């Protein structure tokens, strides 16, 4: 099998990403459960492969600068905008409203 170049998101077994394993448990951010809730709310309109494709399209700079859950939320947003479920303006307005409320 030819040696294929891996994508920036394919870090499994890559020694550049090898770190020691911590025995400390890290709690996910308080909003992490909403990531799964959003996917569930989409029901049959959600496709895992579409979200995975969006993750792969984020670009290495974004992928390396955000957390696990942030990656998934960004990809989910890109997917729902691409599919026409929401517009980017709708999302931006709602985010501003939530920020103004302090939540």
Binned, the helix content reads 55-70%
Shape: globular
* Rg estimate, integer Å: 16 Å
> Which range does the strand content fall in?
under 5%
Please mark out the parts with pLDDT under 50 across 5 or more consecutive residues, or reply none: none
Q: What integer is the average pLDDT?
A: 83
Q: CATH topology of the domain at 30-101, which one? A: Cyclin A, domain 1
Query: What is the distance, rounded to the nearest whole angstrom, between the alpha carbons of the first and last residues?
Result: 51 Å
Biggest sheet architecture: none
Task: Name the helix and strand elements from N-terminus to C-terminus, one letter apiece.
Answer: HHHHH
Protein model, in words:
The chain has 103 residues and is mainly α. The protein has a domain of 72 residues: Cyclin A, domain 1 (Orthogonal Bundle), CATH 1.10.472.20. 55% of the residues lie in helices and 0% in strands. It is globular and about 40 Å long. The model has no long low-confidence stretch (mean pLDDT 83).
